[in-house]
């Protein structure tokens, strides 16, 4: 039996969460929960008019992520989630409110819903935060993946989000009692052999602390295998 372990990836847009989540899923045999970006009905409208659609977008993401948490609770084995539930309230909602894209009442209503939902869902056993202070790295990776709806993302927008991510590990630990591994991805590409192996060794050591002596993490594939 695989250990019932729930690990979540966190990080700014373009930090490499999806890639890292796929690598962890394939390597350890964990069920992968993709970030519900493609399924979000309001994302294209949001990037065209953030003031109009920010609250609606955040509510859509909240419902989708809560459903992921409920599914994870029902599954018997390990799971990996692409973006944490708490990033939306602690980073995106607060930032969008600060930019004037959400009103005070919208922010308060959003937090009311988040707090009620969050009381009844399982929290991650471990969080892995991928971070870089260099927003040009994020912009390059966003351009490489070529999502149409992300073409309008600016340097200033990413820099503003980065300000919140600088303290996200502290907020996660102090407010939500979550253990966080923070990895600087400025000069790292987990898709390549030795760097991929190094990343998986870091993850292995971090996750083993969450397991009791009767469980151990499986290695499903060669850690230097570059396929995702």
Automatic annotation (TrEMBL):
In this protein, the active site sits at: 82
Keyword check for ATP-binding, yes or no: yes
Q: Which CDD domains match?
A: dNK (cd01673)
The record's listing under InterPro entries reads: DCK/DGK, Deoxyribonucleoside_kinase, DNK_dom, P-loop_NTPase
Q: Which residues bind ATP?
A: 11-19, 141-145
One MF annotation (Gene Ontology) recorded for this entry? deoxynucleoside kinase activity
List of residues binding substrate: 35, 47, 58, 83, 88, 150
Which GO cellular component does the record give, naming just one? cytoplasm
Keyword annotations for this protein, in alphabetical order, are:
ATP-binding, Nucleotide-binding
Every Deoxynucleoside kinase domain range: 9-207
Which Pfam family, an example, fits this chain? Answer: dNK
**Record-linked PANTHER family:** DEOXYADENOSINE KINASE, DEOXYNUCLEOSIDE KINASE
Q: What is this protein's record name?
A: AAA family ATPase
């Amino acid at each position: 039996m695989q250990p019932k372990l729930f690990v979540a990836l966190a990080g700014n847009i373009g930090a490499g969460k999806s890639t890292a989540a796929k690598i962890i899923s394939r390597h350890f045999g964990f069920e992968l929960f993709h970030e519900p970006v493609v399924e979000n009905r309001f994302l294209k409208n949001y990037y065209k008019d953030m003031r109009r659609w920010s609250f609606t977008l955040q509510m859509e993401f909240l419902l989708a992520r809560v459903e992921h948490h409920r599914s994870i609770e029902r599954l018997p084995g390990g799971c990996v989630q692409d973006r944490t539930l708490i990033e939306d309230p602690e980073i995106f909602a607060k930032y969008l409110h600060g930019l004037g894209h959400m009103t005070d009442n919208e922010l308060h209503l959003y937090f009311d819903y988040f707090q009620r939902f969050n009381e009844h869902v399982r929290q991650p056993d471990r969080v892995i935060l991928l971070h870089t202070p260099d927003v040009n790295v994020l912009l390059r990776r966003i351009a490489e993946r070529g999502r149409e709806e992300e073409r309008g993302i600016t340097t200033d927008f990413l820099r503003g989000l980065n300000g919140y991510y600088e303290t996200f590990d502290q907020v996660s630990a102090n407010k939500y009692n979550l253990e966080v591994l923070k990895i600087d991805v400025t000069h790292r590409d987990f898709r390549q052999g030795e760097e991929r192996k190094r990343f998986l060794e870091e993850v292995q050591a971090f996750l083993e602390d969450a397991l009791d002596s009767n469980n151990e993490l499986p290695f499903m594939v060669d850690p230097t295998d570059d396929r995702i």
